[in-house]
DNA sequence: GTCTATAAGGGGATAGAC
DNA sequence: GTCTATCCCCTTATAGAC
């Protein structure tokens, strides 16, 4: 049941935003009552926390791996795109949700992103390197637009196209 | 007074999102009362409408000009970036505000964006062309991140860097 | 034009029955 | 575990005094 709630919350949060989704909306979609939700979660914020936690773990892990194995730019961008697809677009939609900047900050999302930017920009990056790194990540993030609404996957050809585009941005 | 309200609303909407900004917030920042706001606007939605209208006009105008004068990719992207900077980042922050998708649709933002994508992708675009066009626009949109919070401008060097990056994406 | 006061409704959250 | 009923607060919006 708890997992069912998280699934629904994930979908509604990334469709209507956090502020635009009420506990009632979640309860109805799950097929229960508000109090039913509150048996499993102490607050609405707690739901968001759990929704964000898995994609955040993945992102941290990606960064760790990239550091340990000295990922090339291509490997890094490829893994980043895979992460976006895997998280079912939740994270990267909520990314821009201005109504939850505090929680996002609590999950240190900006810090993690900055780490990625610096990994992409190389050692001792110039200002230009940093601008290009940020732009490359933006290209990778457009993957969201191409995630099939049905099975949540993304066409291989498009994925390759995006990867190449991101690499061209860097150089 | 009405203009002052619009200014404040613009800032708060793009900082906290539409749902995250209450009429009270706006009133306090302006230095008046809720009813004071409602003397000038019939509803909160009406405020959003007016906030969006100017950047939307600019965007329409850009598309019209680009069509009439057969803008090259570079001209188009440059003008697009200028528009983002000029609009004081409002539009392009609200762009991703999931709590106002209805209003955005009413302003036909998606349609306008599609027009831009197709202008960038060239005539008879392949699927790859379209993917690259969307990616290039994403690069241009990262300009938001570099807009100085102080005077709302953007460093010329960064702007050029972004333009070149977007052009590399296309080819 | 701008205020205070208030209505009407929805939000998150809790109590207590079953 | 899940429900109904309820609380309290905040939101949008309006009425009416000044």
From TrEMBL, chains A, B:
Assigned keywords, A-Z: DNA-binding
Regions recorded as binding DNA: 22-41
Annotated coiled-coil segments of the chain: none
HTH tetR-type domain: residues covered: 1-59
Pfam families: TetR_N
The keyword RNA-binding is assigned to this record: no
Family annotation (InterPro entries): Homeodomain-like_sf (IPR009057), HTH-type_TetR-like_transc_reg (IPR050109), HTH_TetR (IPR001647)
Entry GO MF terms: DNA binding
Record GO biological process: regulation of DNA-templated transcription
Span of the signal peptide: none
PROSITE patterns: HTH_TETR_2
PANTHER family: HTH-TYPE TRANSCRIPTIONAL REPRESSOR SCO4008, TRANSCRIPTIONAL REPRESSOR
Protein name: Transcriptional regulator, TetR family
């Amino acid at each position: 049941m708890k997992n069912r709630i998280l699934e629904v919350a994930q979908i509604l949060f990334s469709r209507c935003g956090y502020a635009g989704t009420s506990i009632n909306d979640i309860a109805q979609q799950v097929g229960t009552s508000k109090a039913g939700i509150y048996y499993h979660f102490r607050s609405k914020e707690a739901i968001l926390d759990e929704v964000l936690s898995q994609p955040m773990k993945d992102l941290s892990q990606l960064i760790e791996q990239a550091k340990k194995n000295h990922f090339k730019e291509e490997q890094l961008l490829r893994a980043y795109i895979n992460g976006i697809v895997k998280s079912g677009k939740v994270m990267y939609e909520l990314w821009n949700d201005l109504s939850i900047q505090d929680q996002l900050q609590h999950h240190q999302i900006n810090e993690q992103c900055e780490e990625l930017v610096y990994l992409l920009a190389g050692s001792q990056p110039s200002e230009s390197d940093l601008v290009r790194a940020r732009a490359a990540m933006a290209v990778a993030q457009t993957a969201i637009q191409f995630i099939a609404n049905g099975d949540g996957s993304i066409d291989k050809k498009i994925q390759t196209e995006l990867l190449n585009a991101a690499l061209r941005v860097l150089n």
